[in-house]
Automatic annotation (TrEMBL):
It comes from Sporothrix epigloea. The keyword RNA-binding applies. Its main location: cytoplasm. The keyword RNA-binding applies. Residues 621-646 have a biased composition (Polar residues). Component of the signal recognition particle (SRP) complex, a ribonucleoprotein complex that mediates the cotranslational targeting of secretory and membrane proteins to the endoplasmic reticulum (ER). The SRP complex interacts with the signal sequence in nascent secretory and membrane proteins and directs them to the membrane of the ER. This is Signal recognition particle subunit SRP68. Belongs to the SRP68 family. Residues 616-657 are annotated as: Disordered. It holds the Pfam family SRP68. It is found in: Cytoplasm; Nucleus, Nucleolus. Keywords: Cytoplasm, Nucleus, Ribonucleoprotein, RNA-binding, Signal recognition particle.
Length: 657
């Protein structure tokens, strides 16, 4: 029957070029056509037959059109509700009570048709398969969940959406041909709605969706057109037992076995820790949500480190940066958990001098520091090796070089164009700006300003990234020919690096150099990175000074590189000063427009009367008029048609047309 495919394709086709009002109009026409085919349509000026929408299992077994009749009827009510919601969404007052009740009534009507279809398909006489019955239950639960969402009945909404999520997850693994349809519904509709309903019920964001779905199904009643949710759980477990079960070491892969074997985890579920270390201070965490978030953060970092070690140097910078997304999400959950705990204590009237409040402030500072540190680490990964100090502009292989051959070997080393190099440098500057802003945010955290050692370390780190930013801008000036500006920027970068080197090396000595053993990039800069940048800036400084000396000795070459026209293009002008013999022609040659007379001017030449020709004829007539009229009359009398002026030939290239 393909219930989900039928609904998804109908919505996609209608919403591709219109809205829900258009979808409702299309459904009305389709309903009329299918009623005519099934011979249940109301006759002209006849009484409406309400029992025509009530189908039986025997009818479904005979013709699948009765299933489509129920689906289209439910979809029409759903489309009307969504059209009203979209029409009132732009109002400043929002959706009022009367409009909301009207929307809920339309969704309830759609859910009734879907529940009736699900009950009909459960009978053996209908001939429906187990997958069709599950899809019908999922569709009924989807509409029930939408109605509960508008009613703001979050427990019922969560239970229905959990049933839909479990069914579609199981069907996506058992039906590979339709897996894309189920996955699109899961990612676009179900998972955001599940998360929002769980947020309204004050569930932690770090809680996995399978556990949320399992808990919601076990505690709910009358979900997905069945009074016993255990039926849905058993059906899902028959298809795929791992959907609603926590991951175990026996069923986990390499990355998941790390999760099950990591300290602080039990059966794949993150356990809570009780202590937190921040700047040689141990903080006891009493809130279970914060403790679970910190344990999940440690687990995510361990998983990320294992992924980076497995990938090694073969991973591209964008792939490495994408691997940081899970860590950033978990660290944001830890920040939100600490903020929620502080807000709860504030609402209870507890002063800031309370020891529990002070411990929460320390935990909040530590959580924000870890989140910003991971964000800076991702930026460092995106900039490339040695934090972007090297120019990533190696030779790009062409198609011929990949195939091989003598010609391809000569064309293999083709460098990138200056425009693309400037674009790369611009991206690096944006990343450096983001890193510097993140460092400023760290300085504003509570308790950081009082920590003198940490403040000095942040200042030296800011100078390090400021030197990298100045180096990137200097290289862009070098590409466009501004050697003097490049020298000034490189000198500034070198001074910043020399000021930051002692502080970073001292911080590296205190930490014991442990960050060099880990592939993770954080806010901490290693001694090898600062030493590499020192040597590089010293070499770049000497190179920039040499370029400035060359420009001073050859000023004409500098002007030619700055955009002066070559001598071959200014032959019509007399040179005012000395001729620049180093700028005779443009090399390398480039494509440019040249003035060309269009061909239609050649054709128009035959049809133009020029003023000079008219003035010449008039002056000749005036000179002959002085000799007398008789002479003119005699001349006119002696002229024959053959001696008269012949008409000018017309046409293209002199041919008559």
């Amino acid at each position: 029957m393909d219930i989900t495919q039928f609904i998804a394709s109908s919505r996609d086709k209608a919403l591709l070029y219109g809205d829900y009002s258009t979808y409702r109009t299309q459904l009305a026409h389709r309903l009329l056509n299918i009623r005519k085919r099934l011979r249940v349509a109301t006759r002209h000026r006849g009484k409406y037959n309400h029992s025509a929408n009530g189908i039986k299992a025997e009818q479904v077994a005979e013709n699948v059109g009765y299933v489509h009749l129920q689906l289209l009827t439910a979809e029409r009510a759903f489309a009307q509700a969504m059209a009203m919601k979209a029409a009132h969404a732009a109002n400043k007052k929002g959706i009022t009570g009367h409009t909301r009740s009207h929307i809920v009534s339309r969704l309830d009507k759609a859910a009734k048709y879907a529940v009736h279809l699900s009950d009909t398909l459960q009978e053996e006489v209908s001939g429906a398969s187990e997958g069709d019955r599950l899809e019908a239950r999922a569709y009924a639960a989807l509409l029930r969940g939408a109605a509960a969402f508008e009613k703001q009945a979050w427990e019922l909404c969560l239970a229905n959406y959990a049933a839909v999520w479990a069914i579609y997850s199981a069907l996506s693994s058992s039906a590979p041909t339709r897996a894309d349809v189920f996955r699109d519904l899961l990612t676009d509709t179900l998972e955001p709605s599940l998360r929002y309903a769980a947020y309204q019920l004050k569930m932690p964001r770090s809680k996995p969706i399978p556990i949320i779905a399992r808990e919601a199904l076990t505690s709910a009643k009358n979900v997905a057109a069945t009074p016993d949710p255990a039926v849905i759980v058993s059906s899902v477990n028959k298809i795929d037992p791992s959907i609603l079960q926590p991951k175990t070491p026996a069923t986990a892969d390499v990355s998941e076995s790390l999760e099950s074997s990591a300290p602080g985890t039990v059966g794949g579920v993150v356990a809570s820790t009780r202590t937190l270390t921040w700047r040689s201070r141990e903080v006891k965490i009493e809130d279970a949500v914060i403790a679970s978030a910190w344990a999940a953060l440690d687990l995510a970092k361990a998983r990320l480190e294992a992924q980076l070690v497995a990938g090694g140097a073969h991973m591209a910078p964008k792939d490495k940066a994408a691997a940081y997304d899970d860590v950033l999400t978990v660290s944001q959950d830890a920040v939100d958990a600490t903020k929620a705990a502080i807000d709860d204590l504030r609402s209870e009237g507890i002063p800031q001098s309370d020891p529990n409040m002070q411990l929460l402030y320390i935990a909040r500072t530590a959580a924000n520091y870890e989140m910003i540190s991971d964000r800076i680490g991702r930026n460092r990964v995106l900039t490339g090796a040695h934090d972007g100090a090297l120019v990533q502009a190696g030779p790009s292989l062409t198609k011929a070089s990949r195939k091989g051959g003598k010609k391809s070997q000569r064309q293999a080393a083709r460098l990138e164009t200056p425009g693309r190099l400037l674009a790369r440098l611009k991206e690096k500057v944006v990343l450096y700006d983001g890193t510097l802003q993140s460092l400023e945010t760290v300085k504003e955290l509570p308790g950081v300003a009082a920590d003198v050692e940490l403040s000095e370390q942040l200042n030296t780190t800011a100078k390090y990234f400021g030197a990298l930013k100045a180096l990137a801008i200097a290289r862009s000036h070098t590409l466009v020919g501004n050697a003097t500006n490049a020298l000034a920027l490189i000198k500034y970068a070198y001074d910043q690096c020399m000021e930051a080197a002692p502080g970073l090396k001292a911080a590296h000595g205190i930490s014991g150099g442990q960050e060099t053993d880990s592939p993770l990039r954080t806010i901490h800069v290693s001694a090898a990175d600062i030493e590499f940048l020192q040597d590089l800036l010293q070499a770049e400084l000497q190179r920039a000074r040499a370029l400035v000396d060359i420009v001073k000795q050859h000023p004409l070459s500098a002007t030619a590189r700055a955009g002066a026209l070559p001598l071959s293009e200014t032959l019509g002008e007399y040179p005012l000063g000395a001729v620049d013999l180093d700028n005779i022609v443009a090399y390398p040659p480039r494509l440019q427009a040249i003035p060309v007379k269009p061909i239609f001017l050649d054709i128009a030449w035959n049809y133009i009367d020029y003023p000079s020709k008219t003035r010449g004829d008039a002056s000749a007539a005036k000179s002959t008029a002085g000799n007398g009229q008789t002479t003119g009359q005699a001349a006119n009398a002696t002229m024959t048609p053959s001696t008269q002026e012949q008409p000018q030939k017309r046409g293209w290239f002199g041919f008559n047309r």
